[in-house]
Amino acid sequence: MEISKRLLPQSHRQEHAADETKLGFGDKFTDHMFKMDYYDRAWRNPRIEPTAPLSLSPAAMVLHYCQTVFEGLKCYRHPGDRLALFRPKDNFRRFNQSAERMAIPLVDEEFMLQAVKELLRVDGDWTPSLPGSSLYIRPTIIATEPHLGVRPAREYLLYVLLSPVGAYYKEGFAPIKIYVEDFFTRAAQGGLGSVKAGASYAASLLATEKAAQKGFTQLLWLDAQEHRYVEEVGSMNMFFVINGKIVTADLTGTILPGVTRSSVLKVAADMGLTVEERRLDINEVLAAKETGALTEAFGAGTAAVISPVGTLSYNERQFAIADGQVGPITQKLYDELVGIQYGGRPDPYGWIEFVD
Ligand code: COI
C-alpha cells in the first residue's frame, strides 16, 4: 500500500523542546501522525497528516466497550545522528496478539514497521539527544463504528503518535517506592493481562491512585486467585535479585510479555547471571529480605527502561531494598541495555533497526 502524505509547511511546525532536561512523559506530540482506516474488511488509506484531534461519533464503539489496543516503542538518536528503533518487530508482533484478543482485525506487521519508519522520516528530527530521552512511538487502534450493540466493530482507526519523552517516573533512575496490592487484582487467567488493552490500564487506576495517596509510585500486582504470587507492576515487569539470581514471574497468561523483559533476561544470562522465570510467592520475597538473600529489585519496561525499586510495602510494613540505593546488578543491566539502545555499546543481538 502506498502511504500518502499531507504535511504542514515549515512555517506552521512547532518549535522543538529548547531544554531536553525538562521533557516529561507523553504530553508533547510531533507535528504529524500516521493514520489508516479499516472498513469493508480491509485496512485502507494509509496516510501521514498533521497531528490533530479526531472526529468521532459519540456512538463509536471504543467509547462504550473499550475495544482498543496500543503499543509502546522508542526511537533513539545514535552517534552520528542515526535514528534507531529497538526491537520494533517484537512490538508489532505483540500489537497483533493484542488485536486478536480484542477481536480487532490484524495488521501487516512488516507494513507497520515501514509506516513508522516513514513517519520518522518526516518527524524523526524530534528525537532528543539527551541521554535518557527518546522519541516514544504509540501505535493505537480504536473501534470507530457507531453502534451500541455489543459485538466486534466493523470499522476501526489505526494511528501512530510520536512523543519526545524523558524519564517515565519523576524519580528518573533513582529508586522508586512500590506498594504490593493485596486486594485489587490486575488480571485473571483467560483475561486481558497478557495484551496491551486500554481496558487493563483503566482497571488499574483506582488501586494506583489509592497507593499514590500513600506515597507510592506504582503497584506490584499479585495473582488474582490466591493474592500471593508476584505478577507485574502494570507499566513494567518486575525482577528480584535473590541469592544472586535474577527471578521474574513466568509468562502464564496474566502478565505482559515485555520486550524489555525479554531483553533483560537475555543480557543477564549473557553476563553469566542465573535467570529464573517462575512463580514467585511474595512471602518468599519477604523471607529473602529477612535473611539478606534479597539484594536488589527493579522493574523493566519500554517507557520506564530499568527502574530500581528502593522500597516495597506489603501488609502495612515497609522494606528497604539495597538500602534504597541502585544495586550493582541493576546498574550493570541498565548500562548494557541503555548502551545498546543509544548505540554506545555493540548490539550483538541484532535488536537495533535503523530508520535510514
Ligand atoms: C510502555 O512501556 O510502553 C507502556 O506501555 C507502559 C505505559 C506507559 C502504559
Structure, described:
Helix 2 (88-101) crosses helix 3 (109-123). The chain folds into two domains: 4-165, 2-Layer Sandwich (D-amino Acid Aminotransferase, Chain A, domain 1); 176-342, D-amino Acid Aminotransferase, subunit A, domain 2 (D-amino Acid Aminotransferase, Chain A, domain 2), CATH 3.20.10. 24% of the residues lie in helices and 28% in strands. The chain has helices spanning 61-65, 88-101, 109-123, 198-213, 259-270, 282-291, 328-342, and strands at 4-5, 32-39, 42-50, 68-70, 73-77, 83-86, 134-143, 156-165, 176-181, 218-221, 237-242, 245-248, 275-277, 294-301, 305-314, 317-320, 352-354. The protein is of the alpha+beta class. The structure holds 2-OXO-4-methylpentanoic acid (COI). 2-OXO-4-methylpentanoic acid (COI) is lined by residues 72, 235, 301-303.
- CATH homologous superfamily caption of the largest domain: D-amino Acid Aminotransferase, subunit A, domain 2
Secondary-structure element order, N to C: EEEHEEEHHEEEHEEEHEHEEEHE
Domain module tally: 2
Strand content: 25-35%
Oligomer: single chain
Cα-atom radius of gyration: 21 Å
